[in-house]
Every structure is written in C-alpha cells, then in structure tokens.
Fold these 4 entries.
Entry 1:
Amino acid sequence: MSFQDIVFIVFAAILLVSGFRVVTSKNPVHAALFLVLAFVSASALWLLIEAEFLGIGLVLIYVGAVMVLFLFVVMMLNIDIELLRKGFWKSLPLAAVVAAIMVSELILLIKVRGADVKPANDVMHSASNSHALGKLLYSDFIYPFEIAAVILLVALVAAVGLTFRKRKDSKYVDPGKQAKVMRADRLKVLRVQSEKFLEQPQPNADTPAE
C-alpha cells in the first residue's frame, strides 16, 4: 500500500464520519463545523487526483464564504432544536431508501466503468489543470465568462436593492438643501418687551431700626 492510498483512506474516513455527524449532531453549530470538516476532507481528495482548481475552489468558496455565513446565521438566530428534529424518524425510511439507491448506483458505476479508466499519460502529469482551465476561460470562453460575471454583479446589486428599506425613524440630511437655506427661513427675531424692575422703597432715617 502506497502513501497516497493511506492518505486517501484517512481523508475518506474523515469525510464519512464528518458527513454522518452533520446529520446526527443535536447542536446546529456542531453540525455546521462538521460540514466544514467534510468540505476540507473532500478538498484533500480532490488534490489527490490532481484537481487543484476544484480543491482550492471548494475551500475558498464553501469553507471560506458559505459555511462562515451559515455559522453566523445559526449562531445569531434562536433556533428551536426540538422543532428541527420533529419528524426526523418519519422521514428516515424514505431517506434510507434514497441513500441505498445512490450507493447502489455508485457501486455499479465503479464496477462497470472502473475497468475503462486509462492511466494518465506523461502530458497530463506534467501539465496543470489550473493553468489549462485558466487558459480556456480567458481565451476560448472569455465572452461567456464576462457575461456570467456581469450577471453575478447585477444579481448582487439587485439583492442589495431588494433588502434596502427606508426606515421612518432614520434621519437623512441633504447637503444641497442645507446650502440653499436662507437666514430668514431658520432665524426669527421676536420683539419682547423688556422687564421693568420695581425700585424698593428706601428705609426712612426717622424710623427706628428693629
């Protein structure tokens, strides 16, 4: 058994255990962390078959962005765990049937197409799929790539616009209106009658002091 086989077995076992713990964990935060571990293990398996772009993309996009967002949402929301687990045992038979079908399809695929897989030649070993993919994206598929980027930008702006709501209690100051304000509009001089102080009578010198 080679070192690559040992690494594959280790990461595959970690992936299976972490995927099982995602489903069986009672705490949603722990389930999200186990899902992060599953993504990292899957990325390591991608790197083993020399799919560097897929492995790095899995870590950067799913682990670095999506799962961090999930963790923030799960930790900020007050999630009722009992409500989430309600109906779990009722759906278990159907889920077991679907899982059995998927496992059977994978086994049949490995048995039927496993013998047809040819070993990679020296050109595939010397080349990098990240370099080849980047060359294709920015040469043959440059226009679809740019169109997809524009669509994502429009979707981002639309998402910000849909979530933006004007609040009644928010205070907004328009600098243009402030510059056009005249003194007469803001300042009003009121004429107030001045107060008159009454003079207190002076004590008479003939009056004896108490």
Entry 2:
Amino acid sequence: MKFVDEATIRVEAGDGGNGCVSFRRERAIPLGGPDGGDGGDGGTVWVVSEPNLNSLADFRFNRVFRAKRGENGSGSDCRGAGGEDIEIPMPLGTQIFDVDTEELIGELTMKGQRIKVAAGGFHGLGNTRFKSSTNRAPRRASPGSPGERRDLRLELSVLADVGLLGMPNAGKSTLLGAVSAARPKIADYPFTTLYPQPGVVSVGQNRSFVMVDIPGIIEGAAEGAGLGIRFLKHLQRTRLLLHLVDILPPDDADIVDNIETIIAELGEFSEELAGREQWLVFNKIDLMTDEESDALIDDALDRLGWTGRHYRISAGARRNLEPLCKDAMEWVEAHAPVRTVPDYTLLDDAPPVRPVAAPDDHDDADDDLDA
C-alpha cells in the first residue's frame, strides 16, 4: 500500500428534522388540541482511531463524508427519527486540523479514541411545544438547525519510540529489517525508502519498543530538497534518535560533513527536535578491518567533539546489534512518560455535595422560544 501521510476531506453533519404543525382529529373530540411532534437530531461525524491502519490512503478517493439528516416530526406527537452518526476510522498518530481556521481539533493517540469533528443539527420543535394557557392552538413549528460542515486537513505522524535518521543508503532499512519483523525495501540506490516504515523490536519477554525508518535526509531537506521535508515531522513523534552513519560513504564524501549536515537540517526544521537525545551509530564496519574502522571512527569523534553515546555496528552482518537494542530499550523504559492521576479526595470539612437534577431540555427550549 502506498503511504499517504497528508489528506484533505470534507465532513458534513446531518441537519435536524423540522417540527410538525398538526392537530388531533378524532370523532367525538372536537377540541383535540395540537399534537405536532418534534423532528429528529441530525447525525454527528466522529473520527475514531484504528490501530490496523497505517496510512491515509483510503482518503485519496473518498473525500466527502455526510451523516444522515434527522427526519421531520409528524402528528400524534410522533418525533422524527434521529440521523445515524458516522465514524471515520483513521490510523494512530493522525492530527486533525480545520482548514479554514488552522485550528488543531485533536489527534488520535490511543486505541478506541473518538473525536467529534462535526456536530449534528438540533431538532425542530412541533407545535405541541408552543401551546400555553393563552395560546391553546399554536400554528407554528420551528425548523431543524443545520449540521456543521468542515474541511479538514489530516496529517499522519508515525508513533514510535526510536527514530532512524541519516543520509540515503546509510543502512537504516537494513538495520530495521535485522532487529525487527519489518521487511522494508532494501536496494543500493538513493531514496530506496519512500515512506516511513515502523517495526517492533523485541529484546526479551514483555520488553519491546517501536522503531521507525524514514527516507534519507540530504542537505536542504528542511527547505524542500529530496524527500526529507515530507517525513522530518515523523521524527517529532519519537523520543530517541539513532543517527546512522555510513563509514564508507559514496563519492568519497567525508563522514564528518555528512553528520554535520544531518544535524544542521534537524536544527533548521525544529530546534526542539535537534535538542533531543541522539546517538551516533557507525554502520558497515564489516567492510574494513577492525583497526581501520576504529581509527576512522575515533578520528571522526575527535573532529566532531562528540561526547554522547556512539555505537559501531554492521547491520548487514548483524554485528553488535544486541547491545544497541538493549541500551535503547533501557533508555525508552527510563524515559517513559509518567501519567499522574488527579486526587479527587474531598476534605474532611468540605460540605457534602448535593445532587442537582438535570434540567429538561424540552422545557429550556420552550422558555427560549417564549422569550
């Protein structure tokens, strides 16, 4: 399936049904009085999280979603049926923006989460609701209110614990395929990876984290060069960045220059992202002797003045991958977000809470109309 991380859709909630003007007509009951019923409420549009989806590809063709209108009221105090709500499944990590106001309506971060994006219209009132001691035969009813209509922009950012970044062909896809069950496309040409590929890395019983591979970043990616501009935002949903470095880059490029280019592009895109925990992972050490690779990597670290963590691996030969994954797992566990539960305990001297009866929405509607 082609990965689609942005889409624009239109949602239209159902209109409320109109109220009815009707009078009771039965034999031997000459003064039956008004019996027009209310209309039904319009259907509401909801967005729901669906863990089995991993892209917004379904919205490439189906871009308009309409909920049903509420039915009109009828005589004998019959209320119209309410319009059926519709639910739009979207993958976890989807952010929903209003196109007109650029407001962030919400984001799907939990399984089973539901977000209302367009409220259905309120039902119209039948003439029964307008009767009073001074108006015993009202001949008016109110129409239903229109449902909300919105244009929404959807943006998908893959939710992951660890993100892989680096130059094209640095070995990110190879590493992901070596440590997880993911099977990304691997080839020897630049930009083999065209869309983010997540994978679950297991390091023991009940211990695992999600790693995501994004397309290679090149110089100028933050301004739109290459494919990086479309996918740099996926790294914003990760907590740990593994910067893969090819110790034998093509065209005899300098590995220090490549490292500094990636770090500079992160800073151009987001200062907050550039300040996150980042580990250097020197890849393809199997392509030279240990002495040669150690000398090359030590020289690069000295020139960079790097004081953070660094690793020396070979994703293709699967060398030194276990320590990297274990350390990443320990870091993810140590920096897991802590969720606090608010304390709702009442004070000893607090007055007792008296239950308050909920007001009747029909009475409120009558008061508003009479006013």
Entry 3:
Amino acid sequence: MNRLAQIAVSLVLLVLVSGVGAVAWNWAPDRPVAELKPRWALPPSQFVALDGMLVHLRDQGLRDDPAPIVLLHGTSASLHTWEGWVAALQTKRRVISLDLPGFGLTGPFPDGDYRMAHYSAFLAKVLDHLQVERAVLAGNSFGGQLAWHFALDHPQRVTQLVLVDAAGYPRNATSVPIGFRLAQIPALAPLMDNLLPRAMISSSIRNVYGDPSQVSDALIDRYYELTLRAGNREALRQRFIQADDGQAYTRMAEIKVPTLILWGMRDQLIPPDNAERFKRDITGSQLMTFDSLGHVPQEEDPASTVAALLAFLDATER
C-alpha cells in the first residue's frame, strides 16, 4: 500500500472512530418516569390520574382562594419554569402548576392527539378534578396559546388572562432553537429517539434567554433530563406535526376578560411585534415589556415579572 493510500485509510478510520465516539458520548435513550421522580418530583409534587395519564402537578398556597392562579408552561418546559412566581404568590394565592401532556413528568397523551382543542379539554378536566370553577390563567409560549384558547372555549371559567410571550399568531421567528429545528425533521426521528447531545439542549436554552450568561448547568440539567422522559421526544415531534391551528387567532377579539401581556423584548422565537398584535386584538388589554429579557421572562427574571402580575391582579380585582 502506497503512502497516499495509507493516509486515506487512516482518515477513514479516524472518521469512523470519531463517529462511534460521538454516538457513544451522546447516547441517551428514554428514561422511565420512576427514575426521574426523585429529583424532579419533590414535595409538594403530586400525580393525578386523568385520561390514562399520571399528571404531575403542584397545588400550593391558600386553600380558600376563589380564583386560583393556574400556570401553563411552554414547549419542552415543565412546571419548574414557574418556581420563582410560585414562591412569590403562594403566601397570597392558591397556585396550581402542572406538566402539560407531552412534557415534563406527565408524559405523552395516550391517544397521540396534540391538537389545541384536546389540550383545552384536558385542562378543563384538571380544573374539574381540583374543584376549581374559575381561575386566573397564565401561560408562557405554547402555554399562553393554551390559555387564550381555553378562555375562548370556557370564558365563564377564566377571571383574568396573563399571556407571557404567548404563541398564537402565524410564526415569524427570527431565530429558532436547534432542538426545535431538529424535532421537525422526520428523517432524524429514529436517530433522535436515542441521541440527545447535552450541548444541543444548552444551545437551545441560551437561544431563548435574553442574557445567555444566566443559563446555569442546573437549568440545563433540568431541561435535558425531562426531555429524556419516556415518550417526550416523540410527543414533541407530534406537537409540531399537529401544531397547525388554522385561523383561531382571528377570534382573539372575542376575549373579554381582563388581560395582561408580558413580553421579553429580546424574544427571537416569538418576536415583540406579536405582543402588539395581542394588545390590538384583545380590547382593554395591558402590555408590559422587559428590555433585557427573552422568550421565558418568568424564568429569567421572576421577581420583575411577578411584580407586574401582582400589580395587574390588584388593579383588576378591586
């Protein structure tokens, strides 16, 4: 074998070894929920049997609150994204947070239906189970879309609406996290079922923060491990496949409850012009923006954002 051929063989072997090493390093099959509970379902977490699922939720604070605050997280997040808000609210109100189906520890819908109407019906069942007749609904991103959908489907059950960088209008993102982009490529599904580079999760979180330096290793761990919950990766793919919501946003003007819109001005996933559309379409709504924050302002700066919520509730409940 001549010198050139030897070099070529060596390069091929190097590529193969590197590829095997990369697969081994990023090998991450599904993890059973029982394995994740000890770290991510600490008290006061509970699991409620509904629709063939064990729904992970927390029900905290005052028990005699006539209109509890219900917190709805965004895509690939979990109830933990609201921990800062819950800490500030639980001495004043009853606060309910939950892992929506397909995310966190709750895991996938058994029937694989991830359309918004199904989520809205599911949320009604959660409130029925918890004996909540009327609630303040607050949602971030996808959770915000669920909140305003629920307000349209069940207007009598919503006292106030809080939309935090909410989804709903035709997408006009200027930057999309790499994890979301890959989840929308069908050909990668078999590979992504067992591979999950932690660096990809890190990049995706930093992409949605206004100040990426605030993203800690502990935060990355949480998103990474909960993504591995059995069934969540397939659920995410199905969410994107079934995400077409038609023209539901054209009904936004039907929302009549007091509405607060909170927005991070550095949000590239759902840019701030969406906030202006919500404000225009929901009569009497209030808009507050945060110059230094990104797509998850309630997580990035819970103190400032929950202060805006409390002022809104105080003003609209007098």
Entry 4:
Amino acid sequence: MTFGEQPAYLRVAGDLRQKIVSGSLAPHTRLPSQARIRAEYGVSDTVALEARKVLMAEGLVEGRSGSGTYVRERVEPRRIARTGYRSGGDRTPFRQEQADERMRGTWESRSEQERATPETARRLGLDPGARLMCTRYLHRADGEPMMLVTSWEPLAVTGRTPVMLPEEGPLAGRGVVERMAAIDLVVDNVQEEVGARPGLAGETALLGGVPGRVVIVVSRTFYASGRAVETADVIVPADRYRLSYHLPVR
C-alpha cells in the first residue's frame, strides 16, 4: 500500500458513510449484510466486517439483537453555552457555572464526604487522602438526562462553615463564587480543560447510550488568590451536544 492509500475496509466504510450522510441509506434502514458488502465491493468477509465495525464505532449504525445492523437517526447536536461567571438578575450562579442560564430543566444532587484521589488531590493542590465534600449532579432538559457534574471542595476550606454543603444551608445552590465570598474568599480565576473519552458504564447509564460512547469532559477549577477552592468534571454526550464558549475580549 503506497503512502496516502487507504486500506480496503476504510474505503468501503467511507462509501457507506457517504450514503448514510447523503440519505441514500436513511435512518432505521438496515445496513447491507456482510455477504452483500462482500459481493458489491469485491472484498473479503474480514474487510466487510471491519468496515461495519468502523461505522458502528463512529456511531452511524447500531446493532439490534437478532435483527441486524441499522442506520442510526442523526440528531442535530444542541449547543451548551459556557460564558463564565456573571452576577445579578435572577440567574442562579451555580447553575450558570455549569451551563448557560437559558438552559431550562431540573437538577438532582447529593453530597457526601470522601478522600481525595491522586487526581483530585493534584487538581486541588492537596495531599492524596485529604478530606473533600463531593457533590454529584444530574441535569435533565425536557426530561432528557444531558449533563453530569461531579464537584469536589476541600473541607480544609469549607469544613465547619455554613457553606460546607453546596445544596444545603443559607446559600444552598448559590454557586462557588458566592459561597466562597461568604467565607471571605474571593474567587478571581477559573481554569477549564476540555477533552473527550469513552463514557464509563455508570455515566452512560445515567445519560443514556451504551458504554464506550464518547463524552465531552470539561475539567474546571476555581481559584481564590492562587488557591484551588473547587474542582469539577462536567460531562455531556458528545453525539448530542456541543460546547460553545463566549469569552470577553480585553
């Protein structure tokens, strides 16, 4: 195979992909059988099987037990606007920290104490095993689960204060910036790193889909005078949503 030449299974997958994108193979249409792919493209069973695997991995087709492989319905991704912290009005800062205030829906949450893993300790500048308050959130829009958020706050910062539990007390649900201000910590910086990975079984069970389907992960950390006071992972399904950033120009 010369440089730039595609393997046979990728050429077959590319042709089938084009048919799916163009509508020649409509949603819910059964994908040509392995035998038909082999005959139509003049390839081996192995090539036909690998081409089908590519389309499945790309989320263009899905297997149905005892029935075959079918073209998945293409859903236009919804935008999630991330605009940074803004105070005032009837906005709820915590919700805004996760998603744009125009996102309507419901939130479910639960908080519990846990020990910092090496990764959360690194992000918070703590020693592994440090005590944290971990709060897990599930957001539903129009009844559909669409966002998971896991937030960690050092109990060395919030422990024995009125804001120790993010969703209870006098500032319940008011968000990191406002809650930290109540204990004389001024949040002045936030860092976000955006990546993607296969969804874990527990995540996809809550968000819908199958384990291994790609999710977008926003790893966010709030700082007050250089000290990390909260870090969180925001997780959304990559095939249903896009992140849209609106950043001020200074």
